[in-house]
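Hi,

I'm pasting everything inline rather than attaching a file, because the server keeps stripping attachments. The sequence lines come first, and each chain or strand is labelled.
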Amino acid sequence: MSLKKTDEMDHNAWLKKQDLTVIETAFLTTLIWVDKRLRIVDYLELLETMYYRANLQMPKSHTEQYDLDNKFWYWYPLYSLGSLSIIAYLVAAVSGAMLGFYYSPSTAGAAAQGDPTAAYDSVVLILKDVQFGFMLRSIHSWAAQFMVAAVFLHMLRVYFTGAYKEPREVNWILGVVLIGLTLFFGFSGYVLPWKQLSFWAAQIGVEMALATPIVGEWAAQLLFGGFTLGQATLVRMYILHVFVLPFVVTSLIALHVGIVWVQGIAEPH
Amino acid sequence: MTDDNQAMTDGGTDEEARTDGGPPATVPPDDETPTWSERKEHSQGLAQLTYQYFERSRREDEDLRTESTYVERDVLGFPAWPHETIRNLAITSFFVGILIFIAALMPPHFGHPANPGSTPAIILPDWYLYWSFGLLKLNPLNPQLAVLDGNILLGNEFLGIIAHGIVFGAIGLVPFLNKGSARRPVEEPFWAAVGVTGVVLSLTLAALAIQNFFPFGLDLLITLTFLLPVLCGIITYAVLKTMREGYMYDLNRRYYMLRPPK
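And the predicted assembly:
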């Protein structure tokens, strides 16, 4: 009996003893490497437990139980509107990230009133010089339009199929918040090119904020960076559009979908 | 205790036979130590209330499950692979394809650079904010008070903001006002009518936002903005109410065929 300690859990030795193909060896090596560091085996066990606890038989829906298919088959496509708004959101996110490579949020460079600013020029650069840039802006803009349209229609579907009723009130209110944020997403994006309509749309926004008693001036400072429009407004709208809103909206969408997952889809019956 | 000391066939007692094998494997809890359920019951205040409520809701769940007449289907469900995946891929590619097609067909207009010195004749946001812009153009409805010499009570912009609050508040309140298990418009003509009123109102408000495009007076347009939605709502109510009888008869017939009334 040797005094040398043997490692009973020498996985690499165990690996060598076995007659494995290249793919199997590579897979096991990677698995062992990751498992030594993150101990994924624990999480796998958790997953396994959850898998076997899950009810493997689905309850029959009212539709199936009472043979009602022919009564509202025409509702079915409308049940995809929520996913369609998420798909449009993803398309807008990808194209927006690529536009962000070229866009600069700055009002510098205008010698006189009405001259193009750096922000405006960077959009012109995207339109004229960037390879595929014209199409990219078009896709980003249309993805936003599609998302808003899908979100509105999704709300109508939920309303007219009574899917908001108890116990789904919280998700309905979350959806109303998400619609508001989507609209604000669109508004902040509309301001970024700093063209004539962007400026005057932002002007209406500031005036609305200032007309609100008590919190109005504070809101104008926070969102528009002051009472008159300028560099501060553009940078705030930019940060809201590319940093704050993406995080907030993405997590709220995840919560929204998570609640649907937990509560199940409300079928008309 | 008397049972334990019964005489056994070998002449001894049960007590002796049991102690012969050594001490018991587990130490019996002494009387002072509370069990886990006792510990939970002994807790006070909010913790106790929470515990009691969870007990109730778990019992409710159990009762519902035992009383349930749910029928289970033979199949396990629509398989995630490949059926669901292929379907989702098809829907996604179709949708993104249409999006790219329209983006190529109708690229958005790009206007002149911002000029704080000259206000454009027509200021408009994107189409999805027209309804909101229409709410800001409700100035003629702003109440005028005789006490204030006919002056308006609120700033016009603030009236618009209040209108937004009312719209969002009303939408948020819907699930708290309309309860019950009815799902279809035909089952609840009133709420379907409310929905149609809201949809048409958003369209007429959008029309109000682009009022310059309408060849008739502003008064008439504002009247129509509120009259048309109500009219559409009334028509919806009438139509659904008429449909309802035959429709519900059919629905109930199917329902009672499968679940005859006791």
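The longest helix of chain A spans residues 231-263.

If the labels don't parse on your end, tell me and I'll reformat.
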